[in-house]
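Most newcomers find our protein records easier to grasp once they have seen one. Sequence and backbone structure share a record, each on its own labelled line. To make this concrete, we reproduce a full record directly below:
***
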Amino acid sequence: MIFKNALAPKAETTDLKDPAPWFMKMFGYEASSGEKVTVNSALSVPTVYRCVNIKANAIAMLPFQMFRRSANGREREKKHILSKLLETRPNPYQSPFKFKHLCEVHRNTWGNAYVNINWGADGRPKELWLLNPAVTEPYVDVDTNLLWYFTTLPNGQNVKIGEGDIIHLTALSTDGLKGKPPIQTARETIGSSQAAQKFKGKFYKHGAANNGFLKIPGMLNPDAKKVVRDEWEKANTGIDNAQRIAILDAGLEFQSITMPLKDAQFIETMKFDKSEIATMFDIPPHMVGELDRATHSNIEHENISFIQNTLSPNLKQYEEEFGYKSLSDSEQRRYYLKFNLESLLRADKKTQAEFYKTMLDVGAYSINEVRELEERNAIEGGDKHRVDLNHVSIDIADDYQLAKAGVTKGGEGNQED
């Protein structure tokens, strides 16, 4: 009965793309500042836009690759249809970059990204399509314990899609089913930023002049007050009238009642909002232009932390969800998906060269593997793994040292006859 009542149609309806005030209040989209915080309004805040775009770009630029398990470890799999979808074209309208970018935008604004798998006749994925998270809702049938997704297609058709056809990526979740929209969670800070932007815009719209009132000796009727107000605003407000000299006659006296932008620590408040929004999205402050405490060493450390603590958990979710939903049970035993982080982990040329030298000396990389990382052609004989002569197998270490000393294994040195 509870579920039926909750899902029963209400007398008043609303459009999720442009929610009614009662809907936004019900779901907590109105901030204490009075601002309505929605996905579109939040993205108008530069720091929110920047944070969402940073995370989306970081994941979109990484190659999402497929590997086949082999006796020697692993090998790149390029012929499987899923590999082609992830690395060449997920669907006719999107490149891999645009597809992954939009996935992250959905996940970091609505808290959920829904990918609909279009299966081919061979039982393998044929296309990957992103659903609109504004009109998509997961639903568990309490009678069958099955998970379904209700969504509205671009043509207006309402459809019900089974859980096996949807790759569901979430932000932080409290029920394990649906992610919480970061914008809703941070609505107070975002609302404060929206209000600050509006205040700043109105401040300059009125010629960077303070609000106040005109003191006039004597009494004026309502019509006279309106005339005086309109004439004052026409002559002394607006960018074109900024810094003009106001002439007061007939005993008029202007008295300010608001503080200029520098007062009440207005700028500090905007900086605080910027840091709070960056924190909510797990973005290092220097990436959103907050450089007050930035140094060369802590920026380098925060960049590494961004990869380890922000991106890596999200990448893991992509790898698990796409692999589980797109591959059959037998295929999952042979194949797996992995993001290539090499482009993010590359340091400056000097540090990179030292890394390559170390890996070559211990035999971890071959020359051709290094050349592949640098996007250069292989060379003949470059596939062999070599080691420094100071590093030998532990099995022959004693013999090697004795041979270097000119002593035989029996303890006799080489002697002339």
Remarks:
- The radius of gyration is 32 Å.
